[in-house]
Amino acid sequence: MARAIARDFARTAAAHDAAASFPVANIEALRRAGLAGLVTARAHGGGEAGLAEAVAVVAAIAEGEPSTALVLAQQYHFHAQLRQNPRWPEAMRARVARSAVTDGAFANNLRVEPALGTPMRGGLPATIARRVAGGWSISGHKIFSTGVPILAWNAVWAKTDEAEPRVGTFLVPRGTPGLSIVETWDHLGMRASGSHDVVLEDVVIPADHAVDIRRPVEWGVPDAAAAAWPVLLFAAVYDGVARAARNWLIGFLKNRTPANLGAPLSSLPRMQEAVGEIDALLFANTMLLRLAEQVDGGAAPTVHESYLAKHVINANAIAAVEKAVALSGNPGLSRSNPLERHLRDVLCARVHSPQSDTILVGAGRAALGLHG
Fold first, then answer.
1. Residue partners of 213: CB distance under 8 A and separation at least 6
2. What ranges do the domains of the chain cover?
3. pLDDT in tens, 306-318
4. Regarding the domain with residue range 109-218, which homologous superfamily does it belong to in the CATH classification?
């Protein structure tokens, strides 16, 4: 089913990329197919899919239109967290989970800020939550808020104004007064993701919408399963992009017959070897994405191993697309062909946290016995 949907998405991908327009119709198609609630807990009517199934769906959608796949990956990560995190008030957990199933409601974590960058590199957010009668008032500025044009639930990372600040997630429903979207997203790649800025000006939410706030020291390294979900889901997006690029290249090499050769480019051994190199990179990705099966089986890789898998999958995806571009020459860089779009999209693999420098330093320190 996901592959058939992805083929439809591919038909409008170039137009959304050119206009940097958000693919609302794609989101509606995901809702109609029941994919918004695929990972949601079964107790609330969802599919309670494991990571392997979620990765497969995201990868398939990404071959057609990767910005849509990224929004879906964020949805699956959010609902996996919702299933796993015991700190959420049960009434709010049920409300958010059921909305994904009954309404196709999407959610995402809004964490990145202009000054802070990603919280994974440390520091407290500038976004602040102040106690008011019956709840909290939130003010701040978030950037790179993927999918925000259609989010029903904005999970805002903020600190309290208490003498000893706590930090965590404050759930802001769509349409809450004081929440506004500033359409700033004009990126090289993933242009249809709607990753705009969000400004919060005295946004008041009920007390039970402070779903998980803790002292900063209580936010430690995630457990192995929790770490694996986002990195493998996001890596699956860019692996899907690389496979779309590979498939375009195959068609190009089979159909391109230069006059001086008198045969398709696919007849040349050097082209055959290069395609084999691309397939080797993508085969390695297939093996690494199967770590999701270990997570589902209760034997998740270590946090460092999951992060290394993300690093390698992304590097392989980028290398595969770059090889396809190099092989195709000018046609691959033409705006009339999708390959240049795949190149711009796959380069965005590098921006998701944790980024490669953090991953490699962490792995190196662990190997060298340098802790803390």
1. 129, 160, 166, 167, 168, 169, 170
2. 2-106, 109-218, 224-367
3. 999 999 999 999 9
4. Butyryl-CoA Dehydrogenase, subunit A, domain 2 (2.40.110.10)
